[in-house]
Amino acid sequence: MEELVRPWRLGPRGRWWFDVLLAGTLFLIIPFYAIQVMLNGGAARDVDSSSHVADLVLVVLQLVPLLWRRRHPVIVYAIVAGACGLQVLLIDYPLVSQVSFPIAVYSVARYARPRWGLAALAVGLLGSVLGTHDWLSSVGTASTGEVQDGINWSSYVPVALSLATFPVAAWALGALARTRAAYVDSLIQRNEQLRREAEQRAELGATQERARIAREMHDVVAHGLSVIVVQADGARYAAEQDPALAPKALETVAQTAREALAEMRQLLGLLRDGDALTRPQPRLGDIATLVEETRAGGMELTATLPEPGLAVPEGVALTAFRVVQESLSNVRKHAGPGAAATVAVTAAGDTLEIEVTDDGRGAAADASGDSGGLGLIGMRERITAHNGTLETGPAPGGGFRVYATLPLIGLAQ
């Protein structure tokens, strides 16, 4: 899965330095503003030492808290808003440091809960009304020398609306940034969740594949060793009775051992990363070869097999081959000496039927099919995976019977 690219953001150190530069830049404006007032000789207003002290205190209260606006947005906003309120009470003219108020509103809307952002917006709107009233009153008094009665609405409303745009815009930008950050974080979290789920599915698939390989290994080892044991016993007997037959039996033992070893190496290769099978899996036509090998091992075997070239899904063909292989291995292990077996593999309509019976004493053996209990259990798992059925038990007239059906339609190829 393609990894989601995270948007570029300032780190903790970068955010700290950004806030330092922001507050420092605003703070440096004040000396130039004071110098300009002093050079004008106080023509615009009466400049005295007390006003300078009040200005300095207000500037510090309005700008310095911005350094902590990300970690403590509500507290910073309360200090800045309080300083702006003191400004209305102490002086009748604006300060450049008042730009800290919309920055504080933005910080609350961006980093605090939505209700705190709405509260900051409400206070900002109220402050724009009070500030407009205070400044317009001071301007009117300074120009006429008399205190004005009433409110000049033609001047009051435009100024109040103009001042209100600052907290409204700051709140809107902060809320938008908070919503966008939450959306991006949710996308990143969702991407991480999908990635973990994909890894879990891959691990589950690997586990299932290893279980399949274990069943394949059991079938290969059980079949190969059973043939080897039978042929080795035959070779020992031939060496005592008719030495001319011993080489043929030993040749069969060697050939079976080589084939079983090759298949084991292929299956074990699947457990290594990057390895793959170099030989195709057994198909339906390979059952004929399996029958010939079993006959060569000395078992009397009658087989009814489908015509070569019968098209069936690969999974069904492999399952049919393993069912016959496991059943014949069980006959050699449990049916006793001299037992004869019958194999019938037929395609009836949309179903593949497999029947393996013997006339030995297998019905009296362990019902699991082998001492470890993995033979018929693995066989049943294979057939169930293909929505098939399996019947095992004593055959009529004695012996043991394995009967399986596999559907040929509605399967994933």
Describe the structure.
It is a single chain. The protein is an alpha+beta fold and 413 residues long. It is 63% helix and 9% strand. It has helices spanning 12-39, 49-63, 73-90, 100-111, 114-144, 153-241, 246-269, 286-296, 314-334, 375-385; strands at 300-304, 340-348, 351-358, 389-394, 400-407. It has a 5-stranded mixed beta sheet with strand order 1-2-3-5-4, covered by helices on one side. α4 runs parallel beside α6 (153-241).
Write the layout of secondary structure elements.
Layout: H1 12-39, H2 49-63, H3 73-90, H4 100-111, H5 114-144, H6 153-241, H7 246-269, H8 286-296, E1 300-304, H9 314-334, E2 340-348, E3 351-358, H10 375-385, E4 389-394, E5 400-407
Parallel strand pairs: 1-2
Antiparallel strand pairs: 2-3, 3-5, 4-5
GO cellular component, one term: membrane
Domain Histidine kinase: 322-410
Organism: Nocardioides luteus
Give the fraction of residues assigned to helices: 55-70%
The main β sheet shows up as: 5 strands, mixed
Order of helices and strands: HHHHHHHHEHEEHEE
> Strand sequence of the main sheet, in spatial order?
1-2-3-5-4
Low-confidence stretches: 40-47, 142-147, 273-278, 366-373
Structural class: alpha+beta
Share in β-strands: 5-15%
Distance between the termini: 25 Å
Number of strands: 5
For the CA atoms, what is the radius of gyration? 45 Å
Number of helices: 10
Shape: rod-shaped
For the record, the count of structural domains works out to 2
Transmembrane segments: 20-39, 74-95, 116-136, 156-177
Catalytic activity: ATP + protein L-histidine = ADP + protein N-phospho-L-histidine
Organism: Nocardioides luteus
Pfam families: DUF7134, HATPase_c, HisKA_3
